[in-house]
Give the backbone structure.
Amino acid sequence: MIITIDGPSGAGKSTVAKELSKRLNYTFVETGAFYRAVAFMALLQNIELGDEGAVCNIAKNIKISFKFENDTNNVFIGKQEVTNILRTPKIAFGASAVSKLPKVREALLETQRDFANNGNVVLEGRDTGTVVCPWAEIKIYLDADLRIRAKRQYNALMFAIPKSFEDFVKEVQQRDEQDMNREHSPLKAADDAVVVDTSLLKASDTVDRVLDIVKEKSNEQ
């Protein structure tokens, strides 16, 4: 079975997907890590994020793998572990920029689908239910109030963010607009996705709610 979990940043996708995969003993695939990794390599090589040809070349050749260990979904580029650096605001914003490039999305799509088709998986990202695996049996879309989402991320990263909370809210909003308004594969809920508002839910409550949805949907099939 393929389960997709989409939504904007700070809605709780990674937390839910990770816990869900543990409880179901499924593979956890974080599709956003592919774009973060490409952005990281582009910035490392001083390549402009809007240079579609150069960034696409990185996407075609990058070797990404995951290793779930000590409650963390570790990400590797080749043999280099890059989990923490891929979660910095700079790389997150860069990932949003490169994800707008059609050739980059096309280059990464088949790789993401290979992961998805390799067994029982939980796919987490922004277009897993609409583009990567529109045939997924269960689709979840998590959302929450902008300021609540920003606060969650700010609290987790505040020691690494040299800016005020209000400035960070504006950055999150800008990233949302960039993701939702891009021409190719914009962020949106699939027509058959179950939408869950996590604004007033604890992480554990969100996990329980999504697990209930998975059980309900599984019994219907």
Remarks:
- The domain at 2-216 is CATH 3.40.50.300 (Rossmann fold).
- Strands lie at 2-6, 27-30, 64-69, 72-77, 80-81, 121-125, 138-143, 194-197.
- Residues 39 and 95 are 5 Å apart (CA to CA).
